[in-house]
Amino acid sequence: MTSNPKILIVDDEEHIRKILTIMLSNKGFQTKSAPSGQAALDLVGKEAFDAVITDLRMPGMDGLELLARLKDYDPDLIVFVITASSSIDTAIQAIRKGAFDYLSKPFKEEEIHLVLEKALERQRILAENKRLKAEVREKYNFSNFIGESSAMRRVFDVIAKVAETKSTVLITGESGAGKELAARSIHLNSPRKDKPFVPINCGAVPANLLESEFFGHVRGAFSGADRNKKGLFEEADGGTLFLDEISELPLDMQVKLLRAIQEEEIRSLGESVTRKVDLRLVAASNKDLLEEVKAGRFREDLYYRLKVIVLKLPPLRERPEDIPLLTQHFLGQVVKKHGLEPKRISPEAVRLLAAQTWAGNVRALRNVIEQAVVMSEGPTITPRDLPFGPPPTPEIALEALIPDEGMDLKEALKEVVGRTERVIIKRTLEKFDKNRTRAAEALGISRRALITKIKDYGLE
Fold it and tell me: How far apart are CA 135 and CA 138, in angstroms?
């Protein structure tokens, strides 16, 4: 919306148009006028207006018909109707059909100014909300998850299938792999997308505050509870509750969480009544929950309640073919964030990025790109701009395999060949979606030989 809003005045009486033009110009509005409904439509088709003020009674196309035509053209356009005291019923009819409000004759300059400002401010807030929602959807829509690898295509497929359901989803994956991004993608592609998405990191809340955080409390429930407080379950009602790092919940809280999930109801601390909640639960963990169950740190019944649908996010090292795409994506994001001139990245730098193991996964890659963009001096990011420096030579890479006390040459060669063969077989299987027949053909070996190597290298 412009700093000096532009208003279109539509009336078949010239003196009315002049009066409104003077009043609005005195308050800093830009104005244009039209003597008929058709003339107004012609202007709207050529120029952008922030609001339209139209008389109801005009020859030819009256105000109600013009209102309908304007709303067909732009449903968000603010339209006021001019009315005399004898046509209030028609004005009310216009409001029901989409007019923002009506202006009564005789006009009062301050009144017109106030109602216009109110309408324009409301429209500005609505436009900003739409923009923010569009940004969020663009960021989290699963179709914008970056990756073309077979591993990521499987992730896309699972999100597409589960988003339309209410099924509980357990997202697993290493730290930085994008678990919250996946959870938001499920929510924003579901029927609940216009309802709240409420995330919480279970390891970040002190144990003594967890129950209040989850279920809320009433005033006086405990020392310091000086007001009623909604819990996360109630905040997420109708939407999605995302419990990140759920393995960090203490056992006593796991019991209460399980009951809330099973019964679909909660009771705030200090309250005697329960309330139903309708939400979609998505949980995530970078730990193996089954191992946590075996170790007695996680309840088995809660584990099976959570793992209705399991979405496993692959670590970045298992999809290096996605690194060039991710790099370009983050490069654009960072340049825009810092208001810098566009930068490119050299092929050598991209190859160096793809050669890393990325313990911090996608989050670590983005941090490295941001550091390189900010610190590099030229328009091109080279290997020397990256924190790991230029790529090692083959000789240096081999030396890293040899311990200080030395090792048997045959054993050294066997280890190098074994590591290389394992990587080649693993990547080939991924490329062909674990189709062993096609992978064996691509490797030039028999299917039986490939199966043997899969077992030898623990790739089953």
Answer: 5
DSSP annotation of 208 reads G
For 434, the enclosing helix (H) or strand (E) is: none
- Does residue 52 carry a pLDDT above 80? yes
Angle at 196 between CA 195 and CA 201, to 5 degrees: 155
pLDDT in the model for residue 1:
47
pTM: 0.58
Give the number of residues written for the chain. Answer: 460
Rounded to an integer, what distance in angstroms lies between the CA atom of residue 57 and that of residue 66?
11
Report pLDDT digits (tens) over 109-153. Answer: 888 888 898 898 888 888 887 777 666 655 555 656 788 888 898
**Where would I find the H helices in 249-384?**
251-263, 289-294, 300-306, 323-338, 347-354, 361-375
Q: How many CB atoms lie within 10 A of CB 129?
A: 10
Cβ burial, residue 380 (10 Å; 0-12/13-18/19+): exposed
Q: Which is it for strands 6-10 and 380-381: parallel, antiparallel or unpaired?
A: unpaired
172, 174, 176, 178: CA torsion to nearest 10: -20
